[in-house]
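G., the chain you wanted modeled:
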Amino acid sequence: MSNETESPNRARTLSMDFETLVHARRSVRGFKDQPVPQSVIEEIIDLAKRAPSSMNTQPWHIHVVTGEPLEEIRSRNMTAMMDGAQPSRDIPSHGKYEGVHRDRQVGIAKKLFAAMGIAREDIPMRQDWVLRGFRQFDAPVSLVLTYDRVLDIGAECRFDLGALSYGLVLAAWTRGLGAVINGQGIQRSDVVREVADIPDDQVIMTCIAMGYPDETFAANSVRSDREDIGSFVRFVGFPDTAAVAADRVQ
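Predicted structure as tokens:
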């Protein structure tokens, strides 16, 4: 792959091939103070809705929030968490990560803090970073993803919303927008439900902060690491690689 595809400043086009798109996309946590037209969001959703779902149930709903309602959500969410309120999410949390999962969490945090110049002992700046998450990174748009409550409790619909989420962030990238899937932004799901007027028969799953990337924001250049496939993939029933190579030599 050429170096051009690695540059965060590279212009994105609708003709971008899939491999380039997957490698170019990254989580964006710093946004320009620039409104996103509703028509662009509609294009993104129209692409992402092609995500697969269990038996084509398409259990998802998307509440696109901007302007004053979004400001109220982020302000109340951040204030409540600063004041020591407990998270109030519609879906259960996994709690603290341990083992290899904790290692990966710490790994990306170290990269982000290094990019932002946040020292380990700089408690105020570290807390400020956490508060940015509660504010949905001050993005101009938030997509709140929900599913029909009648499908709870079930893993299928949550899996389906995961597929939709990936489709949304990829589609956003093709339109010159950045995004980050941001569970911190809905820690007070009761506030999100009230302000965005989300019906009680829908379960709030997560949200996606979205907007035009601020390329001067250092953390936007950070890429998270990915494990080699040998560490998490097993091939069952395939011919032995060495045997295949030997056959080819003969």
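Helices lie at 18-24, 38-48, 67-82, 99-116, 123-134, 155-174, 189-196, 241-249.

Shout if anything looks off.
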